[in-house]
Amino acid sequence: MEDSVTPDNGQSAKSRDDNVEREQVHFYPGDDLLLYVVDGKVQLRADAMGGPPVREPDKPMDYEPTHAGVFVIDAIAPYATKTWPRSKIPWGTPIRESRKRAGGIEYQAPSGMWRPLVVEDEKGFEMTASGLIGRYERWHHLTIGFPKTWFLNDFGPKAIRYYRDVNRNHKRDPNEPFEGEMLHTTPKNEAQSEENEEVVLEQSHGCIHVKPVDRDKFIDAGAFRKGMTLVIHRYDEEFKADGGGRRSE
Fold first, then answer.
1. C-alpha torsion angle, residues 57, 189, 142, 150 (rounded to 10)
2. pLDDT at res. 23
3. Distance CA 103, CA 29 (A)
4. H-helix or E-strand spanning residue 190
5. Across 29-34, average pLDDT
6. Distance between terminal CA atoms of the chain?
7. Structural domain boundaries in the chain
8. From CA 79, how far away is CA 116, in angstroms rounded?
9. What is the number of other CB atoms lying within 10 angstroms of the CB of residue 214?
10. For residue 85, what pLDDT is reported?
11. For 111-130, what is the mean pLDDT?
């Protein structure tokens, strides 16, 4: 018998204006489990990892629990932010060794101009061109010289963005910003996947981490389409794979 999930986090059809969606994505942070559900039946499942149940200190941002709730998926796209040192530019941006500063790194802006890229490594020191080469070669077990594109964006090649649909019209209105959390891969997991190594998920700072192969499977199945409901469960909610949906403890 197929596993089933109570649609829309157990809310009744009446509470959703009699419009419970047929297709949903469910994340159970306590089980490290991501599900794609159609008509209450699980179509795909994958390992996934959110933040810790209790806040833990870290830099540049603490590890925080992944927030529970009912959200709507809006976009799948590369993500860049000034908050994370190595995520100032999108994954895949052309890069080169600096023509002006020894050991420096440059990136190609959308205008075509080459601009300096100053980022920190995990120890807080500026990442040099040689350090970037070493990182790539260690992860990929080969010697290629300076990599051609940026591969250290913390959110991977693409991130799944979502928001709280306040008026429940499944359209992101001006008063409905994207959540700061999102679903994405990590640079190290991308490298492990490319080299056919075991992909080991690590806890996030509140986002949902997935393996590259599972991200692609869910996308290919249509599981992250714009307007689809994403249910993030509480840490004390466990998925029960006997047709009984969830249980809370």
1. -70
2. 93
3. 42
4. helix 187-194
5. 97
6. 24
7. 7-76+159-183+199-248, 85-140
8. 19
9. 20
10. 86
11. 91
Cβ–Cβ under 8 Å, residues 3 and 243: yes
Contact 26, 34 (CB under 8 A): yes
What's the average model confidence in pLDDT over 91-108? 96
Decide: 55 and 209 in contact? Cβ < 8 Å.
no
Report pLDDT digits (tens) over 35-46.
999 998 999 999
C-alpha to C-alpha distance for 231 and 5, rounded to whole angstroms: 11
Looking only at the bridges linking them, the beta strands covering 208-210 and 183-184 are: parallel
| Phi, psi for 134 (deg, rounded to 5) | -60, -40
For 21-90, give the secondary structure using H, E and C: CCEEEEEECCCCEEEEEECCEEEEEEEEECCCCCCECCCCCCECCCCCEEEEEEEEECCCCCCCHHHCCC
Q: Which residues pair with 231 in a beta bridge?
A: 26, 70
Q: What pLDDT score does 189 carry?
A: 97
Q: Which fold does the domain 7-76+159-183+199-248 belong to in CATH?
A: L,D-transpeptidase catalytic domain-like (2.40.440)
d(CA 21, CA 194): 35
13 touches 20 (CB < 8 A):
yes
Beta-strand ranges (E) seen in 178-243 are 183-184, 208-210, 229-232, 237-240
Residue type, 186: T
pLDDT at 113: 97
The residues pairing with 106 across neighbouring beta strands, listed in sequence order, are 96, 116
Separation between Cα atoms, residue 83 and residue 100, nearest integer Å: 26
pLDDT recorded at residue 161: 97
At 237, give phi and psi (nearest 5°).
-95, 125
